[in-house]
Amino acid sequence: MNIGYDAKRIFHNNTGLGNYSRDLVRILSSYYPDNQYFLYNPKPAKINRLEIKNNMIIRQPQGFISKKIPSLWRSKLIVNDLKKDKIKIYHGLSGELPVGIDKTPIKSVVTIHDLIFLRYPELYKPIDRKIYTQKFKKACQIADKIVAISEQTKKDIIDFFKIPAEQIDVIYQGCHQVFKTLYLDKAKQEVKQKYNLPDEFILNVGTIEPRKNAFTIVKAIKDTDYHLVLVGRKTPYASEIQKYIEENNMQNRIHFLEGLSLKEFAIIYQSAKLFVYPSIYEGFGIPIIEALFSKIPVITNKNGVFSEAGGEFSYYLEDVYNEFEMQDLIIKIYQNPDKERIDKAHRFAQKFDDDVIAKQWINLYKSL
Question: Cα(351)–Cα(344) distance, rounded to whole angstroms?
Fold first, then answer.
């Protein structure tokens, strides 16, 4: 079977959507190697994080107009290439499908990661909300099957777009093998030395923006001697955090990191004392899964999707803005980590393992 993918995120996005897209193609190409996986990439690749196998075929725009306007190719003209390549199923990995695909025999699948721009509109510019709403809603209306990455996202699709529940399947996101590999103390020490990190620290992962709520963690550890490592791209919100750090003489305890390799990223997870993820809203929350596979305790939001990722053995905050509630929980876990609970959380994470997810995806494709 020839399966086509919107591969823009695979080759141009380092984090969330890119990781999701790469993992899905990696998993399926490994477990079901007899299929041909066509990766439609609008521009020369900037990122090389997917091992290209013999059953993967990369396609780029051909012809003057498609090369000149790659966004037009991705959103419309690509349909001609899909027909030439005898694609049976085309999968829009990030909420979009090309115009006209519903007028062809090609079956279409679209993944919706979240509808945060509708759930929390104040976090987005009006023009962005309008564009996202138009693209995502249209894709949901024409797709043969919609995949939500969580039950929370499925509920949002039903609520905001009025799509019937039976049109939507929930398939959780996988986790890269690098986070499931056990690293020795020597490797951990080398990474700590490279990035000038202390022996013990709290970890937070994600773009440093208001929705991720890293500021509250900084406030929560102000009156402790704990170190915090923040891994993620900075936004203007990071400047507010930096100002607070300087006002409270915390410069030597808060560490900002960017540009890690995947292996370094995984080693830092395993080196952490605990993982704190007080995000306000997510489509799923893959960093929680990465932390569970790394066998470190997780503190996260009680509301929304987070319990789907964290399971019953993670720790949950009633109010993620309450630094005193967060401080109490951090101190409790930091001083007395529950080994049995960590092991149970790790076992829970196996439901997100590659073989489980691969089977769900191939069954969905075959159903079309």
Answer: 12
Distance CA 344, CA 50 (A): 31
Determine the Cα–Cα distance for residues 294 and 306; give it in Å rounded to an integer.
17
The pTM of this model reads 0.86
Q: Nearest CA to 55 among 3, 18, 100, 15? A: 3
Whether residue 90 is predicted with pLDDT greater than 90 in this model: the reply is yes
Q: Where are the alpha helices (DSSP H) in the chain?
A: 8-12, 16-31, 64-68, 70-72, 78-84, 116-119, 126-142, 151-161, 185-194, 214-220, 236-247, 262-271, 286-293, 306-310, 323-335, 339-348, 354-367
Same domain, residue pair 139 and 186: no
Smallest Cα–Cα separation from 113: which of 134, 99, 132? 132
Closest CA to 342 of 269, 274, 277: 274
> What tokens were used for 104?
């062809």
Residue type, 99: V
Catalogue the long-range contacts made by 41-45 (C-beta closer than 8 Å, 24 or more residues apart). Answer: 41/7, 41/8, 41/10, 41/11, 42/8, 42/70, 42/71, 42/73, 42/74, 43/8, 43/11, 43/12, 43/70, 45/11, 45/12
pLDDT on residue 93: 97
Give, in order, the Cα–Cα distances in Å from 292 to each of 284, 295, 327: 14, 5, 21
User: pLDDT band for position 162 (50/70/90)?
Assistant: very high
Q: Which of 237, 253, 337, 335 is nearest to 295 (CA)?
A: 337
Domain check: are 68 and 115 in the same one? yes
CATH code: domain of residue 191 = 3.40.50.2000
Question: Could you give the C-alpha distances from 4 to 37, 95, 216, 220, 344, in angstroms and in order?
Answer: 6, 15, 42, 46, 38
Q: What are phi and psi of 84, to 5 degrees?
A: -60, -40
Same domain, 125 and 142: yes
